[in-house]
Amino acid sequence: MLSTGETVANPGFGAAAARRIGKAQRKLARAARGSRRRLKAVAHLARRRRRLANRRKSYLHQLTAAIAARFGAIASRTSR
Questions:
Q1: Which are the contacts of 77, defined by CB distance < 8 A and separation ≥ 6?
Q2: pTM of the model
């Protein structure tokens, strides 16, 4: 929540990515250890996870850059 009372919505791209990651994990679980198919499944799963991490990181960077451009000073506090 910002000092203006504005809240930032969740971008919501995690649900679709979670389905894809789950599917890739199941495919990996069914592949035999040491097989070429398993190596491909590991690479595919890593790619899916890396893409989600990059999207989250990019969104956070764009959001914080926009907030920093709008406001002169930024302060953080813990709310209990």
A1: none
A2: 0.79
Mapped onto helix, strand or coil, the DSSP state of residue 65 is helix
Distance, first Cα to last Cα, the chain: 14
**36-70 and 14-30 are packed helices; what angle lies between their axes, rounded to 10 degrees?**
160
Domain parsing of the chain, residue ranges:
15-70
d(CA 56, CA 35): 32
From the first residue on, what is the mean pLDDT of each consecutive set of 10 residues in the chain (80 residues)? 83 90 97 97 98 94 91 77
> Tokens standing for 60?
């956070």
